[in-house]
Amino acid sequence: MARRCEICGKGTIAGNNVTRKGQAKKKGGVGQHIGVKSKRVFRPNLVTVKTTVNGTPRTVKVCTRCLRSGAVDKL
To answer: pTM, whole model, 2 decimals?
Structure first.
């Protein structure tokens, strides 16, 4: 099953790890420079929750933001 919230549709997004070289100007250096960019994945914080969908109990994957906002009622 995909890493996706069944309520709001939040899923994984791709991004970069950015390594920086050099000492910051604030600390007396000449400034930071970007070294290497490598790919990474930002994953949503999903929780499997038992809830009622159309009157029947079902287990769904929900992001914690939807759970906290009250979009889903736990059993």
So the answer is: 0.75
Q: How far apart are CA 3 and CA 6, in angstroms?
A: 9
CB proximity list for 33: less than 8 A, separation 6 or greater: 20, 21, 22
- One-letter amino acid at 55 equals G
**Cβ neighbours of residue 27 closer than 8 Å, sequence gap 6 or more:** none
Q: Please give the pLDDT value at position 75.
A: 87
Domain residues of the chain, as ranges?
Answer: 13-69
| Residue 57 near residue 74, CB atoms below 8 Å | no
DSSP-assigned beta bridge partners for residue 53: 56
Is residue 64 scored above 70 in pLDDT? Answer: yes
Residues 41 and 34: their CA atoms lie apart, in Å, by 19
